[in-house]
Request: fold
Amino acid sequence: MTFDRSIKIAPSILSADFANFGLECEAIEAQGADWVHVDVMDGHFVPNITFGPATCKAIRPHIKTVMDVHLMIAPVDPYIEAFAEAGADVITAHVEAGPHIHRTLQAIRGAGAKAGVALNPGTDLDSVDYLLDMVDLVCIMTVNPGFGGQKFIHSQVEKVRKLRAMIGDRPIHIEIDGGVTPETALLVAEAGADVLVAGSAVFKGGSVSNPAPYGENIRAIRASV
Ligand code: DX5
Ligand code: ZN
Reply:
């Protein structure tokens, strides 16, 4: 993975057909996805359950680009090794998931993955002040985590702008996650985000047997920024 600030569209397979993850990953990449965003939920840190490292390992051979694993679980540390072994390129943990995010980020890099830190909409940027020299990505949640298809929270655009200034020249991706549409993508891209996670806005109207709408949806987001 090389670093650059070009806009990357990362479809979230939370909105994919759960019975067809492998084919869905291949379809979105063929239709222009830059990264594949994988939402892991535990029914404890967030009020929804998805899947764990075994599923990540199973879909890994179907992903040629970047496997971007977003952990919405608590605790995180006991599972880092398993997600790294499953082939995650980026592993992102939430600052709110426990008292030792610094240790968690060390462990993620120690396991050989890029380290990401995610902030819920109600969490201040102060919480990453002392983490910026140990992360490869900061994810600003633009919805409360747990579900796809929620409404974009506009107050987070300002947060992205402030984060962009804090980051300066450091090679850190700014990812935004939740409620991305062509309209909201423009706002966060202007504010400094470079990785745009989009679930429902990419998968709507398509399927593995009719993947062309995925491409149209990805191009609509890209065109707006
Ligand atoms: C929310 C997840 C998101 C979600 C985005 O908890 O982290 O990645 O899938 O879905 P949309 O784009 O539909 O808001
Ligand atoms: Zn996510």
In short: The mean pLDDT is 98. DSSP finds eight helices and eight strands in the chain. The two ends are 23 Å apart (CA to CA). The longest strand covers residues 35-41.
